[in-house]
Every structure is written in structure tokens, then in C-alpha cells.
Amino acid sequence: MKIVFNEYIRSLVLPWQESRGTDDDVVLDSRIRLARNMKNRAFPERASAEDKAVVCEAARACIPGLNELGKGQYEALSVNDMSDENRDLAAARRIITPTLAKKGEGKLLFLRQDAAASLAVNETDHFVINTIVSGSNVRQAAAEAFAVDNVLEGQPELAFHEDFGYLTSMPAMTGTGLFIGVSLHLPGLIAAKKLRRIMQGITKFGFGFSGVYSGRSTHVGNVFRVVNQMTLGISEEDLLDRAETVVGHIIEEERECRRALREEKSDLFFDRLYRSYGVLTQARLMEQEEALNLLSDFRLAVTSGLIDADLQTYAAMVTAVDSAYVSLRRFNDEDPEEKERARLLRSLIKKYVRREP
């Protein structure tokens, strides 16, 4: 199945991104991460070669069970066997983490053929389950993650403490070992200068914000991830309930801010979207950060009905502007990265936009 991986790692849109999701005018995706470890084995950072080999053997024994879940076949991949280009691109597309992307003994990835579920081996923890769905649906993502977890529970004896729960390499993950991440596009809240208030408000629910494209709470691309900051002393069900409450509130606030912009500041609103579209279609040089900010306006124009295009077009262009992808597509190494990025954007707009603003 390596041909499948090599094909879609270089495609602009991954299989799971081809379908629409709930509330996808605001929410890009919902992700679940479950951390598990084998009993009486050192965490990967300090594990011996023997420990890592035992973990790999236990993971491989899970493949038949994973394939029987009925969601698609899993491909077994050695991170060390990936080309540098594919490894960088997989990390850029968040199929693997930067930690797993670093070459090291015993690092494996079991990836479902739609790229919406995976089992990372010897990453920060022995086993890290990742699932993702389009739009706002943490329940579905969690259900798929727990299904993989059930297969895993049937193989090795996992490190579990009656008082603390699942033991993990990071104390913040100890307990349920459950990490919830929901990515949201929030240009309305940014324009209305209400994001800081929202950020402060969700902390009482045990959640926080991080920038998706910058790794910090900055405004690059106006895309942020809402994440839980605690896993100890709270059940999986309560965490999911809180996530749905927090995300639902943010969606309502963002939609209200967008409505106010369109109705109360319409000249500024439309001028900004038209200007951004003009730059995307005419620029000959484009930095990655500038491109992401312009694509934020492009996505807002699509969801507002000003541009007739699928939301997958936005996903494709976000992939296309990443340095890891641009480096694969440059026909002439002497051309700057900024030139190829601008060319890719013009080409994609011409191909996928059905009606311009």
C-alpha cells in the first residue's frame, strides 16, 4: 500500500478533506489524540532498543484488528524509510508530528488509507492514536479513536494507575490521555477585537487557544485550535461535553461578528475581500505568511457567497503555499520559492473558482 501513501501525501487535498463537515463555515476540523504506553517499558525518549522493538512488535500485532474495524485498511510505514521530502510534507500536513518526523529507531506509523486515522509508534509515547474529521464533530473523531484504542487494549498490557489513570510521558496528558483539538477560522472575532475575551472565557472550562499556522496565539491565517489543557480528574465524556459547549459558543460568536461586519461595515468588509482576491490572482511573488492571511479572506469570501468555489479549494491552496510542498513543485531551482508559490495560487484559482467576486 506504499503507493497509496506516496500518492496522497503529495496530493493537494487528503481523502478526508473531500467531504463537507458540520459547521464548516467556521470549523475546519476536529481532532482526537490518545496517548498510551506499555507497562514496565521506558518512555520512547529514554527507551532502549529492546524496549522499542517490543513496542513495535506489539503494534504490528494490532494491524489485523485495525483492518477489521471496517473504516479502511491501514498501511504500515517506517519513518526512517520515508524520503526526506515525504517526511517533511507529512509533518507540514499534520499527518505526523515534528517529533515523529525526526529519524529514530523503532518509529512507525500505521496510517488508514483515508489519512483520517493513524497509530504512531515510539513518538512521545509508545502509542499515539490520532483521528480527524471535517467540521465540528469531536464525538465522531472520539468514537473512531476509542475503536482503535479497544484494539490496542487487546494486545499489550498498558500502563494504568488506579488513582491517576493512563500514565503518559507528559504529565499534562496523564489521566484519560485524551487530547481534543478543534481548528476554527475566526476572522470575524479578530476584526471585532473580541478574540482575547473569548480566550479568557474558555479557560474556566479547562481549554485554551493556539495558532494553527504559527504554533503560537498569533493571527496568521486567522485559524486557531481550541485544545483541552487538562486530562486528569475528568472523564472522557465530560471532556467531550465541555469541548462541544466551548466550540458551539465560539461558532455563535464568530457568526455574529461576521454578520455585523457585512451589515454595519459593508464597504470595509467587501473592499478587503476584493483586494485580497486581486492580490491572490495577480501577485508574482508571495511569502507563506502573506499567502495564509490572504487565503483567510478567500475562505471568508467563499463562505459568504462572494466566490463560487468549494471549501476544499481553500484546503488545497493552504497545502500549496507550504514551503514543503512548494519545494516539490519548483521546476527551476533558480526561481525563488515566492515565485512558485504565487504561480501555484494563480493556477489553483483559475482551475477551481467557478465564479469570481
Automatic annotation (TrEMBL):
Highest rank taxon of the organism: Bacteria
Say yes or no: keyword Kinase present.
yes
Q: What Pfam family does this protein match (any one)?
A: ATP-gua_Ptrans
Q: Which GO terms describe its molecular function?
A: ATP binding; creatine kinase activity
The record, for InterPro entries, names: ATP-guanido_PTrfase, ATP-guanido_PTrfase_cat, Gln_synth/guanido_kin_cat_dom
Per the database record, which ranges form the Phosphagen kinase C-terminal domain? 26-257
Q: Which GO terms describe its cellular component?
A: extracellular space
Which keywords has UniProt assigned to this entry?
A: ATP-binding, Kinase, Nucleotide-binding, Transferase
**Example GO biological process term?**
phosphocreatine biosynthetic process
Which residues does UniProt call coiled coil? none
UniProt-annotated binding residues for ATP: 29-33, 179-183, 210-215
| Gene3D superfamilies, per database record | Glutamine synthetase/guanido kinase, catalytic domain (3.30.590.10)
Similarity comment:
Belongs to the ATP:guanido phosphotransferase family.
Name of the protein in its database record = ATP:guanido phosphotransferase, C-terminal catalytic domain protein
